[in-house]
Amino acid sequence: MSSPPPARKGFYRQEVTKTAWEVRAVYQDLQPVGSGAYGAVCSAVDSRTGAKVAIKKLYRPFQSELYAKRAYRELRLLKHMRHENVIGLLDVFTPDETLDDFTDFYLVMPFMGTDLGKLMKLEKLSEDRIQFLVYQMLKGLKYIHAAGVIHRDLKPSNLAVNEDCELKILDFGLARQADSEMTGYVVTRWYRAPEVILNWMHYTQTGLHEGPPRAGEEGFRLYPDQCKPSGREPPGENAGAGCGAAGDGG
């Protein structure tokens, strides 16, 4: 068997959990973080800044039209997201030098440390921390919905959390424009978004029913100018203090 061609200039190859990665030389110390149905994530250190980043490699993004659309959708949305509670894109690159060879690309995002699913397994969260996390999640959702985008796969593993309890919404591979034709069953059953469970066509682009809240409703509501628990002020900064050491999540 012939050996593979040398890595492109400015790149290096490394095997991570039996998968070949070829990344820019500025990203050192690749460490596996996690994987899902559509891709894998490694942490790395940006040698230019010393900052830790998360690098996502999509599995065979161009193997079919469906996969290509999903990859393009995630890249396009990440490129335009600019909010403290929504993951953003730091860099995108491919080791392939020609269009004919173009089979892989990598997304570079801020490294958060863990996700809400893993955090809930590690410790019992206090009410203040839960409020702080949900408050941040709703702020991020308000921003996403204001752009006319529905996430469609919101679940604990797609909510990244760092050691300061700062939260960012991840993974836009299944997100859609609110006015586009949508597939009904696309997300994990027990974490389906309300607009999917209750028929998204009856929802506004913000994901909420039209008209004022009905008498007796409790819990979180979105207001035109802010996002907070009804009847309470938003949690203060100290609500997120000591959210636990970040684990292995992305």
From TrEMBL:
- Tell me its cofactors: Mg(2+)
User: Could you tell me the EC number(s) of this protein?
Assistant: 2.7.11.24
The chain positions of domain Protein kinase read 27-250
Q: Does Transferase count among this protein's keywords? A: yes
**Region: Disordered, residue numbers:** 225-250
The EC category is: transferase
Q: What is this protein called?
A: mitogen-activated protein kinase
